[in-house]
Queue: 4 jobs
Job 1
Amino acid sequence: MSTRDTVLAAAQRLLTTDPTASMAQIATAAGVGRATVHRHFASREDLLHEIGVRSLERWAESQRAAGLAEVVAAGDADRIRACLEVLIDAFVVDADEIGIALTDPTVLNAPDLRERADALFTQEVTLYAAAQDAGVLRADVPARWLGHSLYGLLIAVRDALVSGDIARRDAEALVRSTFLEGGAAR
Amino acid sequence: MSTRDTVLAAAQRLLTTDPTASMAQIATAAGVGRATVHRHFASREDLLHEIGVRSLERWAESQRAAGLAEVVAAGDADRIRACLEVLIDAFVVDADEIGIALTDPTVLNAPDLRERADALFTQEVTLYAAAQDAGVLRADVPARWLGHSLYGLLIAVRDALVSGDIARRDAEALVRSTFLEGGAAR
DNA sequence: CTCACATGAGACAGCGGTGTCTCAAGTTGG
DNA sequence: CCAACTTGAGACACCGCTGTCTCATGTGAG
């Protein structure tokens, strides 16, 4: 792994727990000198931006891997269900890695990242809308609300894992099941 | 409203949108001088701590107003359902007000606040557990997970409101319905 | 071996935020 | 009217972080 990637990974990890971590702390966490960090990233903002870009690429890759576009075009209920499942699992796996990108002001306020994130969210909402049409997801709530609620569950699963309230191996199933069936008894 | 309360309210509002807002920005938002802020709060940490205390009091008050303790003791399914509803509505109303207290590192890392928040969460989980026993909430997931997932939905509703994806008047119903029934079609 | 290159360590100036202080200008209550 | 109190504005020193620079060290390729 290149020094650049080492720094990037350490920053992603550290900033998730402490968004205010300084460049010096990031350098220490990466096991490199502070000057070296600046050699690879002109400024703190640059570093955050790069993390944002990578996180969005990861997100886009998840959508691609789940075959989102084709599934939406097909509109088949079973395929939609499977696609949702794949997508949720990918999210849970990436939750802590792309966490900062979803919450840090520096990342959120970068216009280009904001735009790409909106595009990805909107892209994803097409799946929810298709799911509503196919009778997979309930149609009495806005499709975009379904997107937000899944995002909220990702925050929840991260917290639950940190506080040790759920087992890592159960995480995907809990999110899937809660997103679809909710918490009420049957 | 006392100057102190004015500052507190402005800080709560401002910090929700920008957690890194400086004391000067807070002072401006409150319409007072920077020195005045420091007259009422010895340090930035003090101010944050006070906000945390108030948010936790609000939370505790919501539990009291919903009669949580008595409902848990009674264990009656209908009363549990009603209690949940009242609690969720109160959360949605307070979501943006106590938002910072749930995310800001300064608040989260204060040991005394951390302890009180844990106590309140645990208290609330007794309701979820009682709801599971009474057949109101599903019993095949950890009670604490239900707590986390509701918390996640609060984050979601705040985001959805900010981005204009849902109407304010629909917020409570969406959270209630999504928490209980999930997103799958029936 | 030698050169090119990346690195660690440290020094440095600049910047913005913090917390303290003072002083002049209201405001309130007796 | 007057005294006590509160405020706004500004000045100030302090601190930590940022970004730049230099220099010595180490390492790999030729």
Note: Residues 22-24, 34-35, 38, 42-44 of chain B lie near DNA strand C (CB under 10 Å from a C1').
Job 2
Amino acid sequence: MQSRTPGTSGTPAPRPGRPRSAAADAAILAATRQALVELGWSKLSMGDVASRAGVAKTTLYRRWTGKNELVVDAVAELFDELRLPDRGSLTADIEGVVLQFAAILARPEARSGLMAVVAESTRDDALRERIRDSIVDRQKRLVLEGRSRAQSRGELPPESDPAESARTVDLIFDVVAGAVVHRTLVSAEPADEVWVRDFTRLLLGGLPAAATP
Amino acid sequence: MQSRTPGTSGTPAPRPGRPRSAAADAAILAATRQALVELGWSKLSMGDVASRAGVAKTTLYRRWTGKNELVVDAVAELFDELRLPDRGSLTADIEGVVLQFAAILARPEARSGLMAVVAESTRDDALRERIRDSIVDRQKRLVLEGRSRAQSRGELPPESDPAESARTVDLIFDVVAGAVVHRTLVSAEPADEVWVRDFTRLLLGGLPAAATP
Amino acid sequence: MQSRTPGTSGTPAPRPGRPRSAAADAAILAATRQALVELGWSKLSMGDVASRAGVAKTTLYRRWTGKNELVVDAVAELFDELRLPDRGSLTADIEGVVLQFAAILARPEARSGLMAVVAESTRDDALRERIRDSIVDRQKRLVLEGRSRAQSRGELPPESDPAESARTVDLIFDVVAGAVVHRTLVSAEPADEVWVRDFTRLLLGGLPAAATP
Amino acid sequence: MQSRTPGTSGTPAPRPGRPRSAAADAAILAATRQALVELGWSKLSMGDVASRAGVAKTTLYRRWTGKNELVVDAVAELFDELRLPDRGSLTADIEGVVLQFAAILARPEARSGLMAVVAESTRDDALRERIRDSIVDRQKRLVLEGRSRAQSRGELPPESDPAESARTVDLIFDVVAGAVVHRTLVSAEPADEVWVRDFTRLLLGGLPAAATP
DNA sequence: GGTTAACCGAGACGGTACGTCCGGTCTTAAG
DNA sequence: CTTAAGACCGGACGTACCGTCTCGGTTAACC
């Protein structure tokens, strides 16, 4: 939820003059998601979002530099709902979180927005950075959390080489996120329980081999 | 490479009037790729492509309904370069084709265009169909070819259940394509030989488990 | 009815090859007038006229250089209907022909077309020439005929100075044509019998003064 | 000079938001006249006028509904220069104002524009109304002023019947305006002093007869 | 009775302008 | 200094015609 004047995390540092409306931020992001549902990314316009939010266009541009940044923030909030459930086994935990991920990608505001900003980010490094910070890296916590939980259950051995370990986390993340996105958006087939079961088998079956240096 | 009036595969059935210029098609698709490289998808405009190709805007609209369809055809040609190399083993074959795939995704005309049209396709069924026909399904041949070659080498058992087999092909395709795309475009890390080796280990290691019903 | 290859008035000078369809000419001019009625000059398009006439666009351009020339020919035929009636007195004759002229200008194909080509002719000398030859000068016969008839009746004296006489004919023509057109198209009031009676009084009352050198 | 939102004559009633630029109006009308001179009505384009005026196309369309309305306003300003000179006699006054009128019609921006909008007005009642209000009726003041001045000089009797009088004013206006326009644009001969002298003789000679009921 | 040359329909072609929409910026008055 | 409102410049959109061209095929007059 970074804005043009990035959120000074600590004290608000009260500037002179009229302070910005806090309600406006929420209204704008909600309006953006609504517009994504109804229109999709390419037909979503700043003016339309502004009038949906009951706000002037200038108010948008004071907070975000453009459509891309706005959509990143609007979509990022969706992925913060992801939780790693404790279902008792690594297999079940993975299946649970993948199903949650698939459920989010089934929502039109996520489908429309996510791929569009990724596409834009191929030519805009600042945007890619923002996507990484706001969306991608924030969800790596799930992989880390899942691994440590499996280790405490004894399903996985404690990692030895930290560099090796980081590489494996990244690989898993690319495989999970990539496969679900591809299944959902490109193949346009549902990532349902059957598919998730098969996929999880593949992933867990391959893990030991991948972890070998 | 479908146009607005899809190619009647058999006899050309010479319609009355001046026939469409074949040279124009090639010039337009090349100009589109060039524009993708220089400008990216969102700043690519039909007028610009037309003038690069030395063609009138109407000539574009006579052949494609819009920017999305045009870009799909322009990008599709890139992926037809993919070949399954014969490197002697299943592992090596997979590594080879994945590296080729990664090399295509490293080209800016593919990066820019591919994700954008996928994003648009989330709200346009005809476009998704076109992407599937022109790009995705056409490359599944690689998976099929690789499997039959491995079977003839004795690396894989002949499939028994055809439905089960089709499901596995789809799964592999989603995993391979998804992981490489995610690594390349979202994580923005190179899918180099090291990564491909790790990924291939994961995939081949998990295959037996995934193939179990 | 001049065409691009202007009508060699005498012998048709039979060129080799297939001769032009005579029926097409009539159909095109009729279609032009119909289009003028329904669409007006500015929304009339060559393609539309062609399809109304059941003819290809090339056939139009083979005969006329453009829209303006075509419309001039189509409108010119309307004014050839004008006849000088013999109502027994100069006053009555003038009133009769002025009413006929007003009736033609009340038809939408004449209103729309005439002023438009005159407007265009302000920047196109060839077009002005064509208008003069096809429309304007051809109707001066009415003034000449009216005068000689009045002279034979003894209502007007025979002219003495030929130059002076020509100047008067031109003046009368400008006054009559100009006044009726202005009344009809600019003031947008009908040039009815009452108005024509008043106008004719003014004209005939002023004639002796104007004819004095 | 009416705009899309006609000038509320009284208080400006300050609407919210940025007010319209007054300078833009003048620049646009001047650019329109310049374009009429260089290109004529049919080759004048809104985009060209906009760029000449240093203004966006949207700014034109915010103020005028189309080319016709814009040209009417641009041309109307030309005719507001007309003044009734006091040359001591009715004859001389008329000759003076007719020469002025002819001088305006000799300017290419007037020739091109005036007839074109009159032609268009044959199919557009709102446009005809606009022409009447902005150009035609505004100049009838000249006829009225000339008559009252002639009456005060004793050259004309005071009018008795007001309806009769109004009809005569309209008739004179149609004759004067029509004849000068026809002489200038259709006959394409100059309305010079000789012609104006002859025409004025005709007009004044006929007036007594026309004024008789 | 074949040759031949101009005709004809259809429709694609390179252009130009259209009138609209949107992106971002700016200028107001109000808070 | 922020806000709502809305005008501003610029650029792209997709469409409509322009006048030209390139086809396959027809039609009359000459040989």
Note: Chains A and C do not touch (no CB pair under 8 Å).
Job 3
Amino acid sequence: MIKSGNKSSSAAEDYLERIQELIEAKGYARMVDIAASLGISQASVTNMVKRLDTEGFVLYEKYRGLVLTPEGERIAKEIARRHRILTDFLSQLGVSSEEVERDVEGMEHHLSLDSLEAIERLCQQLTCHPDLLAKIKHGSNKGIL
Amino acid sequence: MIKSGNKSSSAAEDYLERIQELIEAKGYARMVDIAASLGISQASVTNMVKRLDTEGFVLYEKYRGLVLTPEGERIAKEIARRHRILTDFLSQLGVSSEEVERDVEGMEHHLSLDSLEAIERLCQQLTCHPDLLAKIKHGSNKGIL
DNA sequence: TAAATAAATTAGCCAAGGCTAATTTATGAA
DNA sequence: TTCATAAATTAGCCTTGGCTAATTTATTTA
């Protein structure tokens, strides 16, 4: 998904997002850490990283590690942004953080820029209308406990 | 996706939704129509319908047609509901109908009930606040033309 | 009702993305 | 520096969900 530039699958986007997060957090992204972070096997990571390399999202040298290309980084940051916006949105609506996480994970690859930015503006507006948000959350049965 | 009852993949859910739509519109769902409606080959439909049968979502007899089981119908209706709610939501935000269609198609399989119903309540509230919606749409560059 | 056409099915293929088991390379500690 | 362990890779397999081409069954029409 994601329109401009090269095509990347949902799976590829997930990898790029996590790789970027690891690099930000620790300066590098090892295969073993990518695997742990995504909850999949190291072998699967090796395969996908090879693909990401041939498709130009990553520079990879066997046994030596990998870095994102500018294009890979662009996609990683775009996905991170979608993640942020959608997480904010569902959190504002009072959805529990575990559900937010799962739902966002699934949705973030399927939204046009237009929809995403409309939701972003909506969040902005909702911030100034806590009364409205209160009514929405009130409908929820898992209220303030 | 969809929690309660049997598991169904996103693809299976798409099939069930379309089958239900065809049955509602014409009283029956032929392989050739399901294929046309989903934009895939008849052979692929035959395969998936067999699977939907063995998984209990559909009753199918070779060359004789198919009907939804109660469970299949339950899922079809649940997906249709998600489709409705998400379509309403993005439309309210001023997203173009083609984009709404594509986005909803992608998202509808990935939302928890909690998130879905929070969005439903949000739409309800937004209906009473056209001023708010106006501001959101205003941020869009493809405004009133 | 027999032949032509439309619909459905089968067989066999492909790519994406997972997996495990076995092997190879790198690295840290004695 | 050598050996034990950790990390990475390879080989080979699986499922999902597509596809085309060939075949079979149903249906329509002359």
Note: Chain B has two domains: 10-74, 80-139.
Job 4
Amino acid sequence: MARKSGSDGKKTAQVLRAAATRLFAQYGYAAVSMRQIAAEVGVQAGALYLYTPDKQTLLFQIMDRHMDDLLTAWQGESADSPADPMARLEQFVRFHIRFHLQRVDGVFIAYMELRNLSKENFAVIEAKRRQYERLLEAILQDGSAAGRFELCDSKLSSYAIIAMLTGVTTWYRDDGRLSVEKIEEIYLCMVRGLVMQGSAKTGS
Amino acid sequence: MARKSGSDGKKTAQVLRAAATRLFAQYGYAAVSMRQIAAEVGVQAGALYLYTPDKQTLLFQIMDRHMDDLLTAWQGESADSPADPMARLEQFVRFHIRFHLQRVDGVFIAYMELRNLSKENFAVIEAKRRQYERLLEAILQDGSAAGRFELCDSKLSSYAIIAMLTGVTTWYRDDGRLSVEKIEEIYLCMVRGLVMQGSAKTGS
DNA sequence: TTGCTATTTGAACAAATGTTCAGTTAGTTT
DNA sequence: AAACTAACTGAACATTTGTTCAAATAGCAA
């Protein structure tokens, strides 16, 4: 019935976002209640409505922030992009794996909870996902036009590469047998093979 | 309060499974109620408990049946497996894409609803998923041992290939620009490049 | 026709849900 | 010290949830 000692709105907002992200990733949006999230934050459910108009907006803002962070981080990363398409592809692959392994919960939600978004919210997130996918597609098309790649199909190659790269988050463990650097190397190796397919044919 | 005219338990059971599969895939297990499933079946919620002990078991049985169908179908498909590892890999890739595109809802649930399974149910499904993944890993290892593949990493190659193949279900449309056959060819091409990566290096 | 079985209805039950808000206390400003 | 604002509590609200089960009807066998 009272304000808690030491309460700080900014701090609570951050704790709320982190708690909601973790619980949505672990159990799923619809399976987690506002009361559960509140308990994790250390407040009552009613207090959450000081920080979010409703549960749907809470989910949307987590996903939207994740996509914005991803696109912004790539913009910074690619500011000094090399000219060589293979080097740019390498830059993208390393970036994708590194960024995603640092935000496994956010990535998980961004891919798993699309169905729980309202139509309008879905459209916003979908547009940003397509924007990110087009980044890779552009790299692939440039490389193909420059004769550096021999793609099986431009669009499907970008779908396939994104799928395999994002798939890393489904099995990666911090204490696993492979470091992030090693995983980057191995996935780079596989992606090179995938985009250089034509050379593989002539080599056999 | 009465039995419906023309009611047939076997038929209702099949309709229930199909309706639950479609609704779980479209909205998610936790977001769909037994009343919604019942409405889709054309009965009241109480009637569902003649066919399933509870909601969790309904989900589990859908996922379990899907995995059983997948493993059984592969067993039939690979009964006359060619000896050449590349041909066997091709067989697997075609099979995976074809099977998954014929059961998009089932596939979706099998991958998306793991979190909603109880511990015991999860263990059962997880074991079958690993069994399927090992099928591909065995093909890759045999090909590598025979000198036909030059893998970047045996285990990660199988993870990456499964991820990209399964990812097809996230964008495929029946009326899209590509036929299932064409998709198979393109993904085969990409998978070949991925497993022949070493040859690509020496070719450059 | 009678008796039995199968299949369903419809309401009940206990519990949980998202959201609201008057009231209370902590922190800040005057 | 007083006044104001911020941050929370706790209960209420309407609704929904999974599940149960007595009763009713349809289908089938004798």
Note: The mean pLDDT of chain B is 93.
